[in-house]
Structure formats: structure tokens, C-alpha cells
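agent> step 3/5: call structure_predict on target 'Branched-chain amino acid transport system carrier protein' (Bacillus cereus).
agent> reason: downstream docking stage needs a structural representation; sequence fetched in step 2, passing through unchanged.
tool.input:
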Amino acid sequence: MRTTLKPAQILSISLLLFAVFFGAGNMIFPPLLGLSSGENMWVSITGFIITDVGLSLLAIVAVALAGGSFNTLASRVHPKFAAVFAIIIYLSIGPLFVIPRTGSVSYEIGIAPLFPDQWYSMLVFSAIFFTVVYFLSLNPSKLVDHIGKILTPILLVIIAIMATKAILSPGTFAEPIGDYKDIPFFKGFLEGFLTLDAIGALVLSTIVVNAIRQNGIQEKKSIAKYTIICGSIAALFLTIVYFLLGYIGASNGNLGQFENGGQLLATVMYQFFGTSGNILLSIAIIFACLTTAIGVVSAFANYFTTVLTNVSYKKLVLYVCIFSFVISNLGLSLLIKITLPVLIILYPITIILVFVSFIDKYTKRKPFVYIGAMIAAFIISCIHALDNVEMIPDFIANIVHTIPFYNLGIGWIIPAIIGGIIGYFIPQTEAAGEVSTK
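tool.output (status=ok):
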């Protein structure tokens, strides 16, 4: 039985994980943050990285220390919670949101600016896109070869070309705007917190575990060690890329403000390289979306083969790709409106699961610590979601707005801490004790 991986294998698996996390949204937001931050870019992007990359890495480490299984980690709350929570997360980051979005974003940012808009353009492109996703997802043992060794290096080379040109052709750093002027670190910190990437990290870390096992590592401690190593290397790559993309945005302050990072990058690339720059950006965007789609489809199908035991992995991949193709063309905007609030409600529960897992030895693995914190966070998050669409009575709105950090979107933190403390002192029943030791 092997207990070590070669450096090249570690690098390939790390690049696979990087690529799965680094979707189009991760590519277009840092430049916009950099532009808005101006001369405060280094401070704000650091805050962004601490929460976006930091929380994702913590989620990967938590799963690794729990034996490499999300179910094992979540079962510390209760086995039924683990099953239901996993299904909700996989559906939310899978065919109901992330996978269809990769197809639509690839078209809107990567293809539409280069070609005349025809009614069938999106239909044809998304059919090709999800066909490629289907074939590259069919064999999960080849994910490292397809993504870690081919697609990701090409993507990184394109980003390096963009960043090198920006460094060699420095522009003007604009004045910071809004909160990026007064509290740049905290503004970046909060933006990174609200990316929701840690939800994906919690379940997509299984891709790394499977890749490590496919390279002959079967011993649990070795799997945990290499999962943490690969996760850390992927986090380092994300950090470097975020700094570079932030610099590209910040150093082009003379271009004015943009509605989104995609428009900003397109303008910058056209200035740098002309039409060929936009083609280069299109390739980068499509590759970023493609690698994320392949990784999420594979993770989704892998998990649901354990839930739907009579459906094969290949059939699940096919069903997900067909469903995502249809949704990306017909109902994505509606699904985003429905799914995004669900993700925002799930996010605090995810973070609580991760953080409490690190203090398990101090809480004696009492499930009520998790449950108390999660119930409190869930209630506040639901109220916040309803408050955003003005669907709660004024007297409740007035009360919740007094909760610390509520107006920043993280008002659940203090109630969760209080709920966890209360849960610690709730007497454990025999059944709960059995759950807590599984």
C-alpha cells in the first residue's frame, strides 16, 4: 500500500482543486474589487482572500480531519441531518445553480461579445459546452489528467499573460470609492465572506480525496495529510491569482467605473492586445467555467450514486448535463432568485459545522452545540432573507436591526455563539450521546 505521492502528483491534484473553485465569478470579481479599491487594493484584496480562500481551506481541512467524508463530518450533528444537508447542498451548487450558470456565463462573457447575437447562439453554444462537460466528466479517474494537467495550466498561462502586461504597462490607480475608502480591509473581508465558496469546499473536497485514492493512497492519515497539502497549495494559487487580478483592475483606474468585472476585463484586454485580447479573455472565461462544471458534475454524480444506488454514475452525469443545458437556456434567472437565498441561509450552517468541528475536543462532541448554534443562525438568516424582500412586519425588522452585524449580512454570528453555548449545557440523552460519538 502506497503512503506517499510524488511532487508532480501533488501539483496535479492541487491544480484540479484550484480549477474547480476558480469559476468565472472568481475571475471577474477581484478586478472589480481592485478598481473600486484603487490605491487601497492591497488592503481590501487581503481581507477578501482571508475569508474567501481562508474559509474554503478550513472547510477542506475539516473534511480531511473527519476522515475525508462530508457525511462523517455532518453526522456529528445527526446522521439524518448529514443526509438532508448533503442533498440540499449538492442540488444547490449543482444542477439548480452553479452548473447551469457556468454555461450561461461562458456564453455571456466569453462568446456574446465576439459574435452577432442570434436567437440560436446560446442554444448552440450551451449544447456544445455541456457535451464537452459530459464527456470529460464520464471518467472521474481522468479528472486530474483533463483538468489538473491540461486545462488549468492553460488557464494559468492566460492569467499570467494578462498580469504581466498589466505590470509592464502600469496605469493609474483611481481614488477608492464607498467603503473601500474608509474601511477597505473590512469591506474586502465581508465581500469574501459573502462569496459562499465555503459551501462548495465542504462537498467538493471529496474530489481531492478520490484523486488521492486513485493514486494508490488508501491509509486514512495519509489521505488527510495529502488533502490538507493539496488544499493549501490550491489556496496559495488562488491567493496569487486574486492579487494579480486585483492589480489588473486597480491599475486601470483611468478607464472609469464598470457595472461588472467582465466588462472591465474585456476593456482592459482590448486595450492591451486589441481583438486578440478579447479572444484570449474568452478562452480563459470558458476554461474557468468548464473546469468548474466538470468538477461539480463529477462530485454530484459521485455522491448521488450512493443515494440512488440503482442509477449509474454515467447516467447521472448525462441527466445533470441535460438538465443544466435546459435550465441555462430557459430558467436560470428564476432559479438564481430562488436558489441564492437558499445558499445564503445554508452558508451560516456550513460555517458553523466547520468551525465547531475544530473545537470538538473542547465541546466533548456534544451534538447540541452544533444544533443550538445552527438553529439560532438559521432563524436569523431566514429573517434576513425575508427582510431583504420586505416580507417581515416592521416591529420584527426594528428588533433584528439591533443585532450586531445584522446590517452587514452576518447578524447570525452572535446568536449562533449564544445558541452553541446554550447547547453545550443541555443534558445529553443516550441517543444524542450515540450520535455524537459516531
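agent> step 4/5: record observation. The chain has two domains: 7-341, 359-438.
agent> proceeding.
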